[in-house]
Amino acid sequence: MSELIRAFIAVKVPGNIADSLENFLTELRPLSRIKWVRRNQFHITLKFLGELEPNIIRLVQDLLMPVKKFKPFTIELNHIGGFPNLNAPRVLWLGGDKGSQELAKLSRKINDILYSEADLPLDDKKFRAHLTLARLKDSNLPEELVRKLGTVQNFSWLCDELFLMRSELTPGGPIYSQLL
To answer: Rounded to 5 degrees, what are φ and ψ at 157?
Structure first.
């Protein structure tokens, strides 16, 4: 039996924007002991694939080739949200309206192709474009952190590529590497 590969399809955050986002998180980290996402983990997930056999990963790579060619568009992230909500978050995220329709369209296209051509499960959840900032065990946010979250700047970039990523879970957190 071959080793399963945990994978997802995502849009990466370019270096200059990742630098700015990391600077913002550096200001937030001392305000709470929550688990902040590291710079090398910044991305927007278009589809989580789960654990797949290597032959299915190769098929996904082939099926993504035509999807990788799309008209570039601007993504702008400028507000903080939370799952399930910001009042009792388990996840803090950064979102925005600009580019969200294009990201949703890409996600649907990927979902449809992988369902019809690779027999992967259809994701029926409503897509919400977001970049995860932190994961929380205790959903109580300190007031100072809540105030600082309200001062988020605009993080904007031209999206012109998507990636197939591997996610290896480790005790220190996930390690991502690019497959395509």
So the answer is: -155, 165
User: Which one from 5, 9, 43, 80 is the annotated catalytic residue?
Assistant: 43
47 residue type, one letter: K
**Residue 79 is a catalytic residue:** no
Asked whether the beta carbons of 133 and 25 are under 8 A apart, the reply is yes
pLDDT tens digit string along 130-154? 999 999 988 789 999 999 999 999 9
